[in-house]
Amino acid sequence: MFACKSSAAQIKPSQQNTYRDDSRAYGRVSPREWAANKQLQYLKDPLHIAEYVKKTLAKDRFDDALLVTRKASRDTKVTVSWNYLIDYQMQEGRLHAGIKLYNEMKKREQYPNAQTYTIIFNGCAISPHPKLAVSEAIRIYNNMLANDRLKPNTIHLNALLKVCANAEDIESLFTIAQTANDGIRAPNNLTYTIILNGLQRKVNKRQHGRAEEVDSPQLAKDKAKTVQRAKAIWEEVIAKWRAGAIIIDEELVCAMGWILLLGDWHDADAVEGLLEQTMMIPKEGKTKISGGTKKQASDSSENSTDTVPTIAVENTKTMAPGAPAYSHALPGRNSLSLILTALQKTGKTARAQRYWDIFTKQHGVVPDANNWHRMLMTLNRGKNSYQSFICLQEMPAELVIAKNFRTAMNTCLRDNLNRASFTHATRIVQLMPNKLKTPDPITLRNYIRVCNATKRLMTGISKKKKLGAPLKAFVTQLATAIKTVWGPYAALEKLYGSDGPESNMKRELIALARKMIAASDIVVSNKLLPLDVETDIALRRNNLNRSVVRHFEEMKAIDPNFVVEEEVEDDEDVEDEGDHKMPPGGAPGRANKTLDGASKGKTATTGSQ
């Protein structure tokens, strides 16, 4: 019995010492280190460690993931875990922290792999410090070139080119491009796409900058230089494409096409030839291109006089598994926007519908919102009010925004020599409730301008004395416009009529009301319509006038220096006005125009009636 007690007494202190040792060990390390040690007791495989690091980083517990990786690096190759850590810092925009991890990784004899460098270069491409990113990325890339252990490949080349392109460092871009070879750094379609996009980005950013930069002769020279550089690159692309060294996709074609649009008329006109060359979309009047032999391609290129020659690609070779099914680029939304923009610039807008049908019907391209608006802009250049209405009618309602209606109405405004333009404009306004949740006051105001702009077609109307049937036709047209606009105006009044005078929508509403008042004055003062029609218009005119006067009184209460400007007659010669936004009604120091000088001085200046 005593022996048993003695034995038990010997075991118990031993267990206590063990727990005490654990307690002391716990006291020498932080809870985080203790947790990391516990994790590594169960994570022996590098794959499992990498999975744990990835999940930990997803919870934004970077310090925990870093500690586990450092401890595991003592006796295990955990390169993937280090890659996750570097990528996390790069995605957070911490360039220095990512490079520091890369250097620490090497010091711990964790050798970077190809994916490590890809992560670093991609991180540099999205860095908020582009110039610093370029210098760091080029330094690492040059070290790779000098190191025999791991040479940079095409993926690394493309990633570094993207870093230079995003930083708009064109000289470094071409310097790195010269390191390409015919081996593991052979350029592919993405290589040329990045280079062309980098060229375009450099010039395009300045093109949409300050006005003095946009109009500068230096920018024009830079555009011409960019186009010439791109053409030289494109010759290399075509040579490699013919040799079967690279493929051509829509992204590459469009990268070249958008640069051509930076050039002159002839460069923009070459976009049609570019699509014919790379996508087998024939120009107007030509038969569809089919694949042929190299001899046929040579004959075709010799006989062609186009800026960009047609290429027929041999399709008799046996294709390797996984090779592209098509030898040419497939049309898509980007190329559809490209050709529509080119037609808009060259003025060959009559071809727009043909290309639209080829893309949407023959190639199954589903247009997006940008494609639809590009089509409307092209029709605007061609002053085709009917096709603008048809385009807007066919456009899916979920893609329609107010800008589309403004463009279509502006087309009717430009098409004022067409007797049917007012009819098309009326149909556009009638289409608005089915396409927009809220009517657009700018479109409605321009609709009344369309009514006034077409009065020149009514022969026999004198600006001093409007008599006879032509005048009655014009007044009837004004009455139709007022009736058409009244419903959308009432909807806007219900939504924004109670807004304060500084509300932009309230000001647009008042500007529309002033247009309607001016049109109503012409109808009522000429007394050419049935009495009931004139009475109804007069009542509506008075309601509108009360709203306008109330708005101006509120404006004067806010700004004692507020002055109501008199409205002047609309210009009959209408040109494209960009986004078509007119000055809001009642803005201090800004004049709003009416339809006719007959109403000058009468609109919203005589008080409520």
UniProtKB/TrEMBL annotation:
<feature type="repeat" description="PPR">
    <location>
        <begin position="78"/>
        <end position="112"/>
    </location>
</feature>
<keyword id="KW-0677">Repeat</keyword>
<dbReference type="Pfam" id="PF13041">
    <property type="entry name" value="PPR_2"/>
</dbReference>
<dbReference type="InterPro" id="IPR011990">
    <property type="entry name" value="TPR-like_helical_dom_sf"/>
</dbReference>
<feature type="region of interest" description="Disordered">
    <location>
        <begin position="563"/>
        <end position="609"/>
    </location>
</feature>
<protein>
    <recommendedName>
        <fullName>Pentatricopeptide repeat protein</fullName>
    </recommendedName>
</protein>
<dbReference type="InterPro" id="IPR002885">
    <property type="entry name" value="PPR_rpt"/>
</dbReference>
<feature type="compositionally biased region" description="Acidic residues">
    <location>
        <begin position="564"/>
        <end position="577"/>
    </location>
</feature>
<dbReference type="InterPro" id="IPR051222">
    <property type="entry name" value="PPR/CCM1_RNA-binding"/>
</dbReference>
<feature type="compositionally biased region" description="Polar residues">
    <location>
        <begin position="293"/>
        <end position="307"/>
    </location>
</feature>
<feature type="region of interest" description="Disordered">
    <location>
        <begin position="286"/>
        <end position="307"/>
    </location>
</feature>
